[in-house]
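Example record

One chain of 107 residues, shown exactly as stored in the release files.
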Amino acid sequence: MCISLPHLTIPGKKTEKSTFGLPVHPLENLTDFVRDNKITIGVIAATNGKAQRFLDHLVLSGVRGVLSLAKGDLKAPRACVVANINLARELENVMYFVNNQQKRAPK
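Predicted structure tokens for this chain:
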């Protein structure tokens, strides 16, 4: 697993860090990490401004499928499938069904 969070890395250093027990690598190490570990699917959970940049790096590294939690659509070549998940909408769906269950529950 590779988590690339530039704000958690020390500029100019290539050392790994750990966040919540998961490895954190500088973005410039992403291509080698993806290729060395034969990773074909990635997940992007970044702000809109950085999501496209991360997707571009993943695609250049050889990733062929991405699950994106970023708002808005990302542009990828045909060789890469991008599935966009709108967490706000999904949470709204869960709340709707929970509320309906509560209304139907016997008292």
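Notes: The first strand starts at residue 17 and ends at 19.
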